[in-house]
């Protein structure tokens, strides 16, 4: 009677779409974090549970984990049928350990013709996610199941009740011959399967159910556990203990320029940096005390682990500030300059005449306070969209040029800029860097305001493209962006500060002060390769837009392009929200230029 009452309660929960967790004493657990037309099954074999399969099952929205002596297996058929009636169809996936003679790492088994497309899509995603994991499709004449277990369905029942079934047989490659678990390999399998199953689920929703997949989202608070938020908070705390760019940027750039000029450009300038406010070793210890490996959600675990690796590399760079090893860390985080990028930069500098009138800025200049006033006016424009948006503009004497850190615009007191150029730079700094920071702050994960690992390339490419959209990407600006690539490559080849400065000034006819600024940026800290990302990011953004992709999605936070599938997945699940602020350069008045980008073809079409 008690068992009958339990299944009645489950049926009522499905009908009312109320989440439920049902413990089956001494047998297992049935969990629906949300009522979905999907059921993930793991039957624990007599020899005991597999850790990877158990963790994988726990990470799914709806799962049943139980021992083989569960006497009410008919519940599974009843539940699947009820879900199919609610949603038009139900997908049942069962997972088990592969027999010894299985060749491939994963065998995806099916018996229904209409499940073939889903199985192929699932296999494709596994291979894309992890090319080292081998996958095979196996078509059976009966419903897939692990050896020695009872049938959960017949083929006739699947057809009549609108249920689809897939079996996943997995080799225990993450366990060695002595029976010891290999934790990194286990995590690799779990995360690969978790992300691939998530995409499979939404593909099933889109094709086989009456649900609109785009509207079918998990609730944020259900998805983000206290454990996830705790790790996110601690990662943010460690990230906010230091400002990387400020710590590797000289505080005496203006004085160093004056001395360099006085020395007739023959003596390498001496740069002074801020005192280190942290102990990099202690930060590293705190980072690796975070139990990211215990997270069940594979997507979020990947995000956190990737960020931790980046912060670890930054700590090593800060420890090596002013030393040769600093450059090696920069290559790890920001990358080098490819031959293709170098040739593009050289071609831009060849095509754009340094004496072209369009590359010379107008005489009318704004000082630092005038530029700050323009920035505050742009902030007021954005506040009209979101009254809770607020930030600060600071004029200070310990930086060079302009810099945004943690959503605050910092301007050197020595800064001067032409009025027309200022309008474009406002969209670069406020419209892109500050807007994406605020949009990231509105997300439940701090990672999207602090910046996912490697976000700089897309961020800087988008920021430069913003200048183009408001008609402010001058030939002079393109020359500087291309010149930075040459400066980075020249530094990586072992040339000195003076050699690189001379190359920019004499071979490519940059003004002496501009050449100094470019060289200083590249050699700061011991060798920073970040400045090559501006041109690479702009090239890749043009290609992204030519493919008809959404530019607004790029403003959701500080992200990078190869994270977009993850971003879309998290938005689909309701974890991430659409951008809170839309920058001025994406307004209707600039849509014509945005439409024209499809005709641009390549970066050379941006030349005035």
TrEMBL record:
It comes from the Bacteria. Keywords: Hydrolase, Metalloprotease, Protease. InterPro entries: MATCAP. GO terms for biological process: proteolysis; regulation of nitric oxide metabolic process. SMART domains: DUF1704. GO terms for molecular function: metallopeptidase activity. Its cofactor is Zn(2+). This is DUF1704 domain-containing protein. It comes from Sphingobacterium olei. The lineage of its organism: Bacteria, Pseudomonadati, Bacteroidota, Sphingobacteriia, Sphingobacteriales.
């Amino acid at each position: 009677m008690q068992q009958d009452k339990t299944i009645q309660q489950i049926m009522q929960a499905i009908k009312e779409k109320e989440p439920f967790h049902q413990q089956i004493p001494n047998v297992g657990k049935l969990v629906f974090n949300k009522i979905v037309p999907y059921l993930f099954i793991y039957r624990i074999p007599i020899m005991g549970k597999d850790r990877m399969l158990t963790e994988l099952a726990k990470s799914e929205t709806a799962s049943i984990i139980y021992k083989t002596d569960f006497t009410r297996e008919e519940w599974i058929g009843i539940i699947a049928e009820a879900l199919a009636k609610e949603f038009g169809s139900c997908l049942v996936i069962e997972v088990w350990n592969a027999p010894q003679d299985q060749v491939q790492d994963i065998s995806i088994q099916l018996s229904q013709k209409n499940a073939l497309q889903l199985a192929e899509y699932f296999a494709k995603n596994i291979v894309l996610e992890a090319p080292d994991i081998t996958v095979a499709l196996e078509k059976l004449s009966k419903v897939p199941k692990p050896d020695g277990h009872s049938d959960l369905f017949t083929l006739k029942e699947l057809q009549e009740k609108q249920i689809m079934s897939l079996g996943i047989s997995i080799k225990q490659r993450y366990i060695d011959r002595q029976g010891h678990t290999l934790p990194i390999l286990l995590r690799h399998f779990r995360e690969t399967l978790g992300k691939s199953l998530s995409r499979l689920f939404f593909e099933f929703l889109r094709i086989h159910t009456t649900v609109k997949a785009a509207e079918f989202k998990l609730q944020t608070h259900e998805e983000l556990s206290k454990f996830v938020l705790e790790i996110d908070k601690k990662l943010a705390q460690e990230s906010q203990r230091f400002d990387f760019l400020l710590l590797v940027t000289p505080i005496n750039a203006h004085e160093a320029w004056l001395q360099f000029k006085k020395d007739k450009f023959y003596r390498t300038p001496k740069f002074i940096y801020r005192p280190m406010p942290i102990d990099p070793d202690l930060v590293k210890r705190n980072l690796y005390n975070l139990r990211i490996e215990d997270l069940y959600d594979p997507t979020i675990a990947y995000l956190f682990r990737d960020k931790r690796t980046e912060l670890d590399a930054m700590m090593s760079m800060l420890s090596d500030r002013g030393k040769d090893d600093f450059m090696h860390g920069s290559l790890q985080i920001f990358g080098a300059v490819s031959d293709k990028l170098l040739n593009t930069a050289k071609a831009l500098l060849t095509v754009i005449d340094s004496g072209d009138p369009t590359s010379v800025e107008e005489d009318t200049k704004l000082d630092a306070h005038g530029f700050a006033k323009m920035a505050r006016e742009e902030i007021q424009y954005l506040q009209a969209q979101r009254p809770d948006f607020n930030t600060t503009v600071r004029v200070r004497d310990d930086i060079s040029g302009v810099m945004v850190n943690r959503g605050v615009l910092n301007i050197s007191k020595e800064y001067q800029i032409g009025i027309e150029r200022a309008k474009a730079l406002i969209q670069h700094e406020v419209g892109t860097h500050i807007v994406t920071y605020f949009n990231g702050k509105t997300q439940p994960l701090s990672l999207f305001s602090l910046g996912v690992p490697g976000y700089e390339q897309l961020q800087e490419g988008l920021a430069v493209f913003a200048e183009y959209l408001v008609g402010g990407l001058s030939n002079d600006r393109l020359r500087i962006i291309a010149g930075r690539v040459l400066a980075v490559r020249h530094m990586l080849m072992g040339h000195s500060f003076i050699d690189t400065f001379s190359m920019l000034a004499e071979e490519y006819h940059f003004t002496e002060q501009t050449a100094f600024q470019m060289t200083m940026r590249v050699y700061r800290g011991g060798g920073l390769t970040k400045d090559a990302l501006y041109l690479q990011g702009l090239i890749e953004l043009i290609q992204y837009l030519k493919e008809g992709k959404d530019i607004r999605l790029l403003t959701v936070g500080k992200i990078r392009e190869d994270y977009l599938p993850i971003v879309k997945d998290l938005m689909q699940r309701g974890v991430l929200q659409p951008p809170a602020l839309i920058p001025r350069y994406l307004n209707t008045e600039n849509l014509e230029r945005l439409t024209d980008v499809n005709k641009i073809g390549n970066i050379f079409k941006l030349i005035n």
